[in-house]
């Protein structure tokens, strides 16, 4: 995954309660870091190949890519902790 800035990929599902809980956090990150971070949402159920490729074992799973490489993997509550940091991008890897 190549991009001019880090990419945060959110694997989620419509039936996933914790996914709904972190959605506002991701929206805030997207707004606050629009120039520094790209956020992509991937609905897991229709994308089993991506789920398998990135070893998504539970939802929500958040993967940060830097320079085309996986830099960090977070699960639901970990993202809540990351957004409480002064600079969540540093916390993410």
UniProtKB/TrEMBL annotation:
Q: Which cysteines are joined by disulfide bonds?
A: 16-19
Q: Which residues form the signal peptide?
A: none
Question: What one GO molecular function would you report for this record?
Answer: protein-disulfide reductase activity
Query: What Gene Ontology cellular component terms go with this record?
Result: cytoplasm
The UniProt record lists the keyword Electron transport = yes
Q: Catalytic positions? A: 16 (nucleophile), 19 (nucleophile)
Q: Which Pfam families match?
A: Thioredoxin
Q: Where is this site: Contributes to redox potential value?
A: 17-18
- Site described as Deprotonates C-terminal active site Cys, located at 10
Asked if the keyword Transport belongs to this entry, the reply reads yes
- Give the Thioredoxin domain ranges: 1-93
SUPFAM superfamilies from the xrefs?
Answer: Thioredoxin-like
Q: Which UniProt keywords apply?
A: Disulfide bond, Electron transport, Redox-active center, Transport
What Gene3D superfamilies is this protein classified in? Answer: Glutaredoxin (3.40.30.10)
Q: What PANTHER family has UniProt attached to this entry?
A: GEO12009P1, THIOREDOXIN X, CHLOROPLASTIC
Under what name is this protein listed?
A: Thioredoxin domain-containing protein
Lineage, opening ranks: Eukaryota, Viridiplantae, Chlorophyta, core chlorophytes, Trebouxiophyceae
